[in-house]
Specification:
Blueprint lengths: L6 H4 L9 H21 L1 E6 L4 H4 L5 E3 L1 H8 L6 E5 L2 H10 L4 E3 L15 H10 L5 E4 L4 H4 L4 E3 L4 H8 L3 E5 L2 H11 L2 E3 L13 H10 L4 E4 L5 H6 L2 E2 L2 H11 L3 E5 L3 H7 L6 E3 L13 H10 L8 H16 L5
Parallel strand pairs: 1-2, 1-3, 3-4, 5-6, 5-7, 7-8, 9-10, 9-11, 11-12
């Protein structure tokens, strides 16, 4: 007999980080969202940076940007709610043009996406004729439309190497570009964009972690400055961090990325102690149970992409998804 999924039996998934007294205040929204998903034939795609009550209790598909992009193609639903930031919802819409895509809060932006415009991309092309443009998925659909193909932090090395060229334009994250250039040997022209979460980490932070937590294994996101990556034990996307912990099973680990990542991953690995350096993404945190519930109740905050932009941007995303990724 199949057990009915409800707020009561979902609590065990978040009990390691959400006190029971707080869960009581969340249960009504959780129950409402579960019901609304059934009524609307909706699914919720949630990024790894969502808070645990979203990530573990109401999300249907979770992962990093690459995983969400891949899974979005196969979604069997009429409505997609993207619990993340705006560019992620646009990507889901690009890959599901016939579905309704909602975002819980239209103000969920991204410092990287806002750092570059289509005009910036055209200027880079003009200054570097014939050099292919690889655009990070953390960009608007309009910027993707000016690109040859996209990448994520999880497949950037494979995407760059798949082009077989000595030089690329890789935008807009200057730190990701610098870190990837060192791994590939390809000359990279970039743009002065950065993630407001990852750029705040410093080598001194890592030193302090190691002094305070002897034996800690430090995993850094490649959006961190190269100097931070240099003093970490490993650098990779959020999905690659999870794979590292699963494979190596370190006794103590620090994930140098957005705050909620550790909360979400800790449940999977009870044998590993998670040290939690905490830089919050204010845009990701605009996603709440209440805002998800409101979007589904009112069917508001729909994300659309103009057809002329969508066709070109979709090609760049699909070209990315064709690249084989090795772990």
């Amino acid at each position: 007999m199949t057990m009915t999924v409800n707020a009561a039996n979902l609590y065990q998934r978040v009990s390691h980080v959400v006190p029971a007294v707080e869960w009581i205040t969340m249960a009504d929204d959780v129950e409402a969202i579960l019901q609304l998903k059934r009524e609307r034939n909706a699914v919720i795609l949630a990024h790894n940076y969502m808070t645990p009550e979203i990530f573990h209790a109401v999300a249907d598909i979770t992962g990093d940007s690459l995983a969400l992009a891949r899974e979005a193609v196969n979604v069997d639903a009429d409505v997609i709610v993207l619990a993340g930031v705006h560019f992620m919802a646009e990507t889901a819409k690009l890959l599901n043009p016939g579905k309704t895509v909602l975002i819980p809060d239209l103000a969920s932006g991204c410092s990287l996406a806002e750092s570059i415009t289509p005009a910036d991309v055209r200027a880079l092309r003009a200054a570097n004729p014939g050099v292919p443009v690889v655009t990070y998925v953390n960009t608007s659909a309009a910027v993707k439309a000016e690109s040859d193909l996209c990448c994520t932090s999880g497949n950037a090395v494979e995407v760059i190497e798949s082009l077989g060229v000595p030089k690329v334009i890789m935008i807009p994250d200057q730190y990701l570009a610098a870190n990837i250039a060192r791994q590939t040997g390809v000359e990279v022209i970039t743009h002065p964009g950065a993630c407001e979460v990852h750029e705040r980490f410093t080598p001194a932070d890592i030193t302090d972690l190691r002094e305070s937590w002897p034996g800690v294994t430090v995993l850094a996101h490649p959006e961190c400055p190269p100097a931070v990556v240099d003093v970490a034990d490993y650098a990779g996307s959020t999905a690659q961090m999870v794979d590292f912990v699963a494979t190596r099973q370190p006794e103590r680990v620090a994930l140098i990325t957005e705050c909620s990542m550790s909360d979400n991953v800790a449940q999977q690995f009870p044998g590993t102690e998670f040290v939690r350096p905490c830089n919050l993404c204010p845009h990701m945190k605009r996603n709440t149970l209440a805002s998800i519930r409101h979007a589904l109740e009112t069917m508001t905050n729909e994300v659309t992409v103009p057809a002329d932009v969508a066709d070109r941007a979709r090609t760049a995303v699909e070209r990315m998804l064709e690249v084989k990724v090795t772990k």
